[in-house]
Every structure is written in C-alpha cells, then in structure tokens.
Amino acid sequence: MKHIDYKKAMLSLLGGLSLLVAPKASAQYYEIVNQLPNLLSPALSGSMNYKGYVDATATFGVGNDRANFVGISTSQGFQYSSWFFMGAGLGVDIAMSSLSESPVYSPDGFYSWNPRMSQTRVMIPVFSDFRFNIGSSNSSSPSVFIDIKAGATWLIGNRYLQLNSGALSNSAQFLLRPSIGMRVPTNRKNPKNALNFGVTYQLITADNSWGYWGGKYSPTLNSIGVTAGYEW
Prior knowledge:
The protein has about 230 residues and is of the alpha+beta class. The chain has a single domain, classed as Porin. About 15% of the residues lie in helices and about 50% in strands. A hairpin with an 8-residue loop joins strand 5 and strand 6. The longest helix is centred in the first third of the chain and has 15 residues. The mean pLDDT is about 80.
C-alpha cells in the first residue's frame, strides 16, 4: 500500500484553499504591512474593541499513534483592526485513541492491564489565538478567515492516554491548531456577529511520555477535521 504523508497532504490542502483567496489576500498585503506598527496603539489608547469566539471542533487521527478529538473552546480578546484579532482561549476536549488490532505491549503485559491506562481521556487546552480576516470583518458579506491557536494541553486526572506505541502522560503537551474557513455574518446591520465554518489541523507533541518497552517516548498526534463557531 502506498504510504501517504498526511502532514504534506494537509499543508497542500491549506495551500490550495489559500490560493482560492489569493486575489483578495494580495490586495490586503499593503494594508497589513502599513498597519503592523500601529497594532499596539489601541492597547495604549484604551480604544480596543473586545471580541469573543466559541468554537466546536471534531478531528480524526492519522498516523501510527492516532486519536480522535471532539471539543469546544472559547477565545476572548481584542479586534486590533478589521483584519486582525488576538486573544487567549481555554477549551475542553475528549480524546479517544484509535488502537490497532494488536497493540505493542511490554513482554510482561504490564500495560495491557495497568489501571492508569485509558483509551478515552479529557484534555484541557490553553492557547493564544491569532485570527486573520481576508476581507473586512466589518462587512456584511461572507469572507475568509485564517485562525491559529498555539499553546499547551493537559490530560485531566492521573491516568494516561493509551496509544499504539506508548502512553501520553498527563504533563503539559504542545498544541497547534490552524484552521481556514468562511466567516458568514448573521446580521447585516451588525456584521460583528457571525458564524464560522472551516477545516482544521491539530498537532500535539510531547517529549515526556513512556513507551511500552520502557524509556522515554515522544508521541506526535496528528488529526484533521472540521470546526464551526460563533463570534460576537
């Protein structure tokens, strides 16, 4: 069976979607470059516009150590300009590992019955959120958004998430979740409120977990899925 590089496939998908909005994007490059020095001005003047988001996400694992995720998160921050939002967020995810038919266990079978191992765990992501609008968020017309969430995520409790090659510990893990999609205002008179629909990629990496055969284990969890949300 031909090997599929899922990371390259996802990057190609995001790149292809970006090309669809290239004309609008290129028209905004000049505006972005000229506004970058002024991004801190609203913070200093107290004129920043508060903005909030709530997002529901479902992603499906790919690769050897894979897990599916279903979760909800909220981001709170400020709209620095019509095209740029920055804030911080918190969420709750349910992680469900997808084991192969014959997981690799240690010779004594310890991990096959260890009560600290579980295939379903709750995780808490904490992140910084950066969102870019291709087209003004003050317009009543649909536009394209690019969202990047970066931070950390933790397993709740003292159990580990069981994977094919080892166990994800309950220490802090690195989280990256970029998304691209459509922003659809819900009210022509108040385009600040909108629905968001998109595709998303999630990366979780760790260097503090344990392999079934003992020793340090550094899992990388890749998953691809969809996201839907509301902003106000």
